[in-house]
Amino acid sequence: MNMDRDASTSAMDSSTNQTLASRIPDEPPYETTKEIAEAVTDRDTGLDRVVSRITSRSSYPDPGPPPDGGLQAWVQALMGHLIVFNTWGYIISFGVFQSYYITALNHPPSDISWVGSVQIFLLFFVGTFSGRATDYGLFRATFALGSFFLILGVFMTSLCTE
């Protein structure tokens, strides 16, 4: 029974290949060598059953050149990088602080590791509200408030003794 199915499948594959190969003209108006290679590959391997149609570049609208925002766009991209660098760099560097606190304060790592966990929690929790405020158009106020709290936290940490 499997032999009958294999024979019928191979007969169907060869007839499908012949039918689809006859639909692909010998000298079509292909625009790239990749499209030519795909058409030849479809004829030889039977991939034409998967490909439903051959498209050319002319079937897609031209998106035009990429936008050029000039110096202002590049400065904004750089500032965005510095904000992400500052935010995540400070959080990720807690491992360095943790090892220092363990040796300087003689506490076990479990007593100190919760500080980094609270930092990451607050980053994401406060981010839900600050993200909405930023989307609303309050970027400068959100950025100023966040910078103030970051600097305040660093200064208050320097006053800690235990």
Write a structural description.
The protein is 73% helix and 0% strand. With 162 residues, the protein is mainly α. It is elongated.
List the helices and strands and how they pair.
Blueprint: H1 2-23, H2 33-45, H3 70-92, H4 94-105, H5 109-136, H6 139-158
- Total beta strands: 0
Shape: elongated
Query: Structural class of the secondary elements?
Result: mainly alpha
Biggest beta sheet summary: none
Question: Roughly what percent helix?
Answer: over 70%
Radius of gyration (Å)? 31 Å
Order of helices and strands: HHHHHH
Beta-strand share of residues: under 5%
| Uncertain runs | none
The chain-level mean pLDDT equals 74
Span of the ends, CA to CA: 81 Å
Alpha plus pi helix count: 6
Features of the shown structure:
162 residues; mainly alpha; 6 helices; 73% helix; 0% strand; elongated
